[in-house]
Design goal:
Blueprint: H1 21-26, H2 30-44, E1 49-54, E2 57-62, H3 68-76, E3 80-83, E4 94-99, E5 107-112, H4 120-137, E6 138-140, E7 146-148, H5 162-165, E8 171-176, E9 183-186, H6 190-194, H7 198-203, H8 207-211, H9 217-221, E10 237-242, E11 248-259, E12 265-273, H10 275-302, H11 307-319, E13 326-333, E14 337-343, E15 352-354, H12 362-366, E16 371-373, H13 384-387, E17 396-403, E18 408-416, H14 424-443, H15 448-455, H16 465-482, E19 485-493, H17 496-503, H18 505-522, E20 528-533, E21 536-544, H19 547-561, E22 565-567, E23 570-572, E24 576-583, H20 593-609, E25 615-617, H21 620-641, E26 645-654, E27 660-671, E28 675-677, H22 679-687, H23 691-711, E29 721-725, H24 728-732, H25 736-747, E30 754-758, H26 760-764, H27 767-780, E31 783-789, H28 795-801, E32 806-809, H29 811-818, H30 822-837, E33 841-844, H31 850-859, E34 863-864, H32 875-883
Helix pairs in contact: 2-4, 10-11, 10-14, 11-14, 17-18, 18-19, 21-22, 21-23, 22-23, 23-25, 25-27, 29-30, 29-31
């Protein structure tokens, strides 16, 4: 049996020492082995000096010209890690010393200078290798010294080191020269590092060359030079190899090119995975670069650099950092919208994006906290409002607010095309950058350019609402002083959302930029045209003689806007609705600019209700309506709290059998003084605020609870369904899907018996966000119906875009059938055929005559409801209807 170094008795050697193991194998004496250990530590691993000593003094020292004081200090250094003594040659050095086992008290000590990385693992491993050499090849003499046992180490061969090699955390190999050189041996560790078994790797001589990263090939191949044969040391190499799964691994390689017994040059080497080290190096370099960037920006700010240039520079510098696809800086508008200020790349077309502060990520941002979005593909409905404006290829983002002393100026947004690209440290860096920018803006906020940006809409260059309100207040003060009148116009473009969604937001922005100068041309030089946001504009008429002059200006504006507008090379037509109010000091009760704005806004809505494309003057009727609206809203709050709401149930029958199949839940208000308030008198008012969500939530709770009672004990397949209406605010609000899921679970109610009815307004409110909610409801098993079908602008597209189960034909087309209108019949027939072809249930609403009922049945409708069948019923009457055994309607 051949003697071998026992790998079980030794701490696994550092991979940096693997190429030098044969040197220990060939050592013939203890002094030679000790000298080899000291030489490796100094010449190969950067130590300033190394010695091996026993109880009688040094056995070997390297370099050979070490001064006596250095040898003395190394000899007296304690075991472990220590510092060089002050005022000695090793002051500022770090000293590592370890005992050599099985040696009768020998020790290995080495020192590293302050600028060189300490290699403690290599010192410990060298001591372990030397101890194993002494254990196997040396023996103690009577004087406590160790001498050679007489087993010639040169008789050992490569196979003797197999066990030791397989414990090393690196790949050991023998390979022929050249990019296609044959691999004679590769250790099993290659499978854990690169994913190949040794057999797979050695089977193809081209594996190594093909795995080389293209950028590293020239560097790696430069070592394939026969002039290196026989040299004792070759410099280490670092390059990347592609693993079997496609990712790249950083390799640190040390090798010697030696001839085999036939004289052929063979690489004897080791490759170690240093990917983690490289990643750490990159992270440290990134952090250093980030710190330098913040310092440079701070220096620019101290020197008084223009804030706009500071913002541009920050975006540009951040955009060049590793992992960053684009960096951009946005200025905010009244905590509702963000306007592009600067961006480092051109990956997105948006110049205006929403800024919602009630939910994530806006809520923490307005508190001054940075936000990380690790993956935009995660199913988080809170991110839905931003997905439409997200540039392509963006996978993750880091966002931080730019704060001043008393306000927030905007955001820094950084995108990456990698998921999870940003860490908490990156968020802290952006926050430090934002602090520099915020302080600089704060110091120069009186600067004219910044003042302009803070008071003007960046898209149209018109004054924003803040400047508008200030000028309106100035006009009102001047009117009080001079005894004149002030006019105010509030303008909203008609159906602009449909235009925006139909031709794209960038085209919508172009249209707004075209509208702005038309408005400015239509008014007087002393007047102020402002963009409030979106498609809303306000106009201060600084001084008017009377209401007629305000009317004249409004009509001029409407005529100017109605002219064709060229957008992306195509002429398009648009109209507007204008609200007008005129204020006379001492006569009108208005006390401030906001009151006047509210009046003009109310008049504008009156113009829309009257048919759009017109102007409407605020007057007593509108004021009375405003007061009544506020009163209804206040009382409706109390109605919910006092349980004054009630649910009526309108029956729905199957048009094949005439049997009752379900009810539609309809909210009613039992006012303590006014009696039963009709839905048309309070639902539209509720829809203008969050009140509608409270009403809808109350109705669905009541309806599911009641339907549960009706279905208790009913046979399978004979369940009574319930339909409830859901508003735009409820569907788009937080937690609607969770609300429905919780109610179904609490009452153990079959989800297929619940239908959520939606109007086209709900679907128009935001395709992606609404679709996410609807898909969540569908996963629960709930049915979805499109109410009032046929009255909107894009209903047909919604049938394919949203997961709908049912369409309800609007009462207008049902009325056409009742009076024999052939157009109504044709439209109703088309709707039925579309629904049936899409496997949807088609329901006819508002059936009020025998003729109409027979016609919708002949057309192929599946179900019907209306006064002919039954009016909405209170719960006892609806329960009695269910208990009837015969069909509700006989055909």
């Amino acid at each position: 049996m051949n003697p071998r170094i026992n790998s079980q008795r030794i701490t696994p050697a550092s991979s940096a020492l693997i190429p030098f193991l044969p040197e220990f194998r060939d050592c013939r004496s203890l002094i030679e082995a000790a000298g080899t250990a000291a030489r490796i530590l100094t010449e190969e691993l950067g130590a300033a000096g190394a010695i091996v000593l026993d109880e009688n003094g040094p056995v070997a020292a390297r370099p050979t010209n070490l001064d006596a004081p250095v040898i003395a200090e190394l000899s007296t250094a304690p075991s472990g890690i220590s510092a060089g003594v002050t005022a000695t040659p090793l002051a500022g050095h770090t000293i590592a010393g370890y005992p050599i086992r099985n040696s009768g008290g020998m020790r290995l000590t080495a020192a590293w200078g302050p600028q060189v990385a300490l290699r403690t693992d290599e010192v410990r491993s060298t001591a372990s290798i030397l101890a194993e050499w002494i254990h196997q090849f040396g023996q103690e003499d009577g004087g406590g010294r160790t001498r050679l046992r007489g087993i010639p180490a040169r008789d050992l061969n490569q196979d003797d080191f197999t066990d030791l090699i397989e414990t090393i955390p690196a790949i050991v190999y023998l390979a022929e020269m050249g990019e296609s050189g044959r691999w004679r041996y590769v250790s099993p560790q290659i499978e854990s590092v690169l994913g190949y078994t040794p057999e797979e790797w050695m089977a193809d001589p081209n594996n190594w060359f093909h795995a080389l990263h293209p950028d590293d090939r020239d560097y790696a191949l430069a070592f394939e030079d026969q002039r290196l044969i026989g040299l004792d040391i070759h410099p280490p190499a670092e390059y990347r190899l592609k693993a079997r799964d496609g990712h790249y691994v950083w390799m640190f390689e040390r090798a010697r090119l030696l001839p085999d017994k036939d004289g052929s040059p063979i690489w004897h080497g080791v490759m170690q995975d240093i990917s983690a080290l490289k990643s750490a190096e990159v992270e440290l370099a990134q952090k250093a670069e980030q710190q330098l960037l913040v310092a440079r920006l701070g220096d620019m700010a101290v020197r008084g650099e223009d804030p706009d240039e500071l913002l541009r520079t920050a975006a540009s510098w951040i955009g060049r950092l590793d992992r960053v696809l684009e960096a951009s800086i946005w200025e905010q508008e009244d905590y509702e919208r963000l306007h592009l200020c600067h961006r480092s790349a051109d990956i997105g077309q948006q110049t205006v994006i929403p800024f919602l502060t009630s939910t994530f990520p806006g809520a923490p941002l307005i508190k001054g906290e940075p936000v990380l979005i690790p993956n935009w593909n995660q199913q988080d409905p809170r991110l839905d409002p931003y997905r439409d404006v997200l540039p392509e290829n963006v996978m993750s983002s880091a966002i931080t607010p730019i704060l001043g002393a008393d306000q927030q100026f905007g955001l820094i947004i950084v995108h990456s095309d990698r998921a999870g690209a940003f860490t908490e440290e990156d968020g802290n860096f952006l926050l430090a950058t934002a602090n520099v920018l915020g302080n600089a803006i704060e110091r120069t906020r009186s600067d004219q350019s910044l003042h302009y940006r803070l008071n003007h809409d960046l898209l149209t260059e018109l004054p924003n609402r803040r400047l508008f309100t200030s000028r309106l207040a100035d006009a009102m003060e001047a009117a009080e002083r001079d005894g004149t009148m002030v006019g105010l116009l509030f303008l909203d473009l008609d159906h602009f959302k449909l235009i925006n969604d139909g031709i794209g937001h960038h085209a919508g922005d172009e249209m707004l930029r075209e509208v702005a100068p038309r408005l400015s041309r239509s008014v007087r030089r002393s007047d102020t045209v402002s963009r409030f946001g979106g498609d809303e504009f306000g106009i201060v008429l600084s001084s008017v003689a009377d209401e007629a002059e305000a009317w004249e200006i409004a009509e001029r504006i409407l005529a100017e806007i109605s002219q064709p507008i060229a957008v992306e090379g195509t002429e398009r037509l648009i109209t507007a609705s204008v609200g007008i109010t005129v204020w006379q000091p001492g006569v009108d009760s208005v006390v401030g600019p906001e009151d006047l704005i509210q009046e003009a806004d109310a008049a504008m809505y009156q113009a829309k209700e009257a048919g759009r494309a017109r102007a409407h003057m605020f007057g007593a009727a509108i004021q009375e309506k405003m007061v009544r609206r506020l009163e209804v809203e206040r009382e409706l709050h109390r109605a919910i709290e006092r349980d004054e709401l009630a649910v009526a149930y309108q029956p729905m029958i199957d048009l094949g059998s005439g049997n009752l199949v379900g009810f539609e839940a309809l909210v009613r208000w039992r006012h303590p003084d006014k009696g039963l308030v009709q839905p048309g008198d309070f639902i539209p008012i509720a829809e203008e605020s969050e009140l509608i969500r409270k009403v809808d939530t109350w109705v669905i709770r009541q309806a599911i609870a009641q339907a549960t009672e009706w279905n208790r004990g009913r046979p399978a397949g004979r369940g009574i369904s319930i339909s409830v209406n859901s508003s735009t605010r409820q569907v788009r609000g937080e937690g609607f899907t969770d609300l429905v899921s919780g109610l179904l679970e609490r009452h153990d109610f079959p989800p297929e018996l619940l239908t959520i009815e939606l109007t086209e307004t709900v679907l128009l409110a935001g395709t992606r966000q609404v679709n996410t909610v609807l898909e969540g409801l569908k996963r629960l098993g709930v049915r979805l119906a499109l109410d009032d079908f046929g009255t909107g602008f894009s209903s047909l597209s919604y049938l394919g875009e949203f997961p709908l189960d049912e369409i309800k034909i609007d009462r207008k087309f049902i009325d056409y059938l009742g009076v024999g209108d052939p157009r109504g019949s044709a439209i109703a027939n088309a709707i039925v055929q579309i629904g049936r072809s899409l496997s949807m249930t088609v329901v006819a609403e508002a059936v009020s005559s025998e003729t109409t009922l027979q016609m919708v049945r002949d057309l192929g409708c599946h179900a019907a409801q209306g006064y002919l069948i039954a009016k909405p019923l209170w719960t006892p009457d609806a329960t009695a209807l269910i208990e009837r055994q015969d069909p509700l309607y006989a055909f």
